[in-house]
Amino acid sequence: MRALITGGAGFIGSHLLDHLVADGHQVSVIDNLASGDKSRIPDTVTLHVVDIRDAAAVTDIITAEKPSVIYHLAAQISVRHSVTEPRFDAETNVLGTLNLIEAARAVSARIIMASTGGAMYGDGVPMPTPETQLPKTQAPYGISKYCAEQYLSLNNRLHGAKHLSLRLGNAYGPRQDPHGEAGVVAIFCGLIAHGQTPTIFGDGTQTRDYLYVADVVQAFLAAATYTGTESVLNIGTGKGTSVLELLDAVNHAAGTTITANHAPARTGEWKHGALDSSLATQELGWSASTTITDGIRHTYEQLTA
Asked: Which of 141, 146, 151, 210 is catalytic?
């Protein structure tokens, strides 16, 4: 298989890249390296240092590479950043995806996009939440991802494409940036490893569906051979874990008892989230297999190795 990964030098993308290369596939990467790490790209893989907002460059690369599958993981992923800079969020997540769609159609490539389950549904919805629930997103990030999903689905209807959006839970694991703002597990692990005090925004009872990166990769691999008619699938554990429970799990992995400081809740955040992924189990034969305890232990051990 000829595959291209956007965001292939990033957190999830580099794990996916490792699996595809190990399985003998021919893979290339588009990444602007704004947050990705060039050292994660093997010498056998062609890295195009390009921003997906550059339509001409994206078209040239895809026309030359002729991938059969495009794993689309490049994105603006920060809820907070989307609130302060919604235009940049839309340019990256909507227009960037449109650039890929147009280029993919010219070479009959299929796009499998990393969307958001965590930011999609909002509060006051059934838990765990199925794909049939109308999104009630509370941040521009969720809106931009939903819009990108709709463009992919539209191309399926108009042009007979087989694009698929995977609404991911809150992915975590090794290689996630412990110095950023988007990955609370990595942030907590990094701070506690150095004996520092984490900050919890709000009271800490807010819940998210935390999904270990190895399970995310397995979902993308399963999606590559999917021949069904669904265009959107939830990818999560079906369970909500509170931030306080998360901190307890990190402390357990580290053998510490550090307590957190609290700060006001942030704009654009929602209270509870958990994804009903039974459709993914039915359609892809996929389900999450890593417990939150094991996943956080693996993450902490890798960070401190």
From this structure: 141
